[in-house]
Amino acid sequence: MADRHNLGEFDLIRRYLAPLASDAPLAFGLTDDAAVIRPEPGDDIVVTKDAIVSNVHFLESDPPERVAQKLLRVNLSDLAAMGAEPKAYLVAAVLPRSVDADWVAAFASGLAEDQRRFGVSLIGGDTVSTDGPLSLSLTAFGRVPRGTALKRSGARVGDDVYVSGTIGDGALGLKAVRGDLKPGGDQRDFLIRRYQRPEPRVTLGPKLIGLASSAIDISDGLVADLQHICDTSRCAITVELARVPLSEAAKSALAQDIALLETILSGGDDYELAFTVDPSKTEELLHRADSLHADVTKIGTVSDGGNVTVVDRNGAPMALPAPGYCHF
Ligand SMILES: [Mg+2]
């Protein structure tokens, strides 16, 4: 096992991070003091950042490739929620002595795989040592045509509410990782993959520009994140439970334990998009989603008021579980 501490921090960057910048000429191979971002005329640059800490958001024993990919993907999901096309990112790794060069190599290989998949490049990085926990932070940059970034604040009374993909898999996957949920083999793999490697909706997000009146990515849980739209748009949202799209794995988990409904609606870690659309734009939305082979499902409507209500098949409001946001 290579000892990271025989390598200086410059060597770590040169060996493991610099190759990730080879497709970004204005990152200068990470040999300069900073990188250059040159937006196309008429573009806005959209920026987001997430930091994660060992034993809070992940475990030091988790596969480094998966930790890297989740860190990158949650940021790409935030860009997607703004309608931005991802372009580049910066990463900072604060490493305790227990983390060796093999860990850094595997972390970088996880990033390399996702760079190819999502068309982004590293443009800068830093590694520093600490006596504290392993901490990672990533800043992602995307582009939108000027003034078109989607926001949480534009939902209007009468709009329909949509989500992409299926809801609840990430939170059920976390339960499966912890051993609190014991689905059959294939379904277990599916749910854990959805938790560890969420699929940021990087192609759908930009296609929602000009269609969605508001958008957010679902990280804290469907109900909590729709509430963010209500708060910023000053509206109410009614969700019809029967319309919420569930995977086969989530349906069978729910069939065994109805209490998992709370996890599905409030558990978080979905990284799907939730957005509002004027009903006059339904056809165009479905056409665009279809062209991307993206699943979008209408789950409710926007009305006057201030809160999210989930209603059952009879239209009766259900008692909402408390926001279920939780980490390790
Ligand atoms: Mg977000």
Topology at a glance:
Layout: H1 9-17, E1 43-53, H2 64-81, E2 85-96, H3 101-118, E3 121-130, E4 135-145, E5 160-164, H4 169-178, H5 185-196, H6 204-207, E6 212-217, H7 222-233, E7 236-240, H8 248-256, H9 260-266, E8 273-277, H10 282-291, E9 296-303, E10 308-311
Parallel strand pairs: 2-3, 7-10
Antiparallel strand pairs: 1-4, 2-4, 5-8, 5-9, 6-8, 7-9
Helix pairs in contact: 2-3, 4-5
The structure holds magnesium ion.
The site of magnesium ion (MG) has 4 residues, from α2.
Structure characterization notes:
- The chain is an alpha+beta fold.
- 33% of the residues lie in helices and 23% in strands.
- The chain is built from ten helices and ten strands.
- The protein has helices at 9-17, 64-81, 101-118, 169-178, 185-196, 204-207, 222-233, 248-256, 260-266, 282-291, and strands at 43-53, 85-96, 121-130, 135-145, 160-164, 212-217, 236-240, 273-277, 296-303, 308-311.
- The strands form two sheets. It has a six-stranded mixed beta sheet. A four-stranded mixed beta sheet has the order 1-4-2-3.
- The radius of gyration is 21 Å and the shape is globular.
- Bound molecules: magnesium ion (MG).
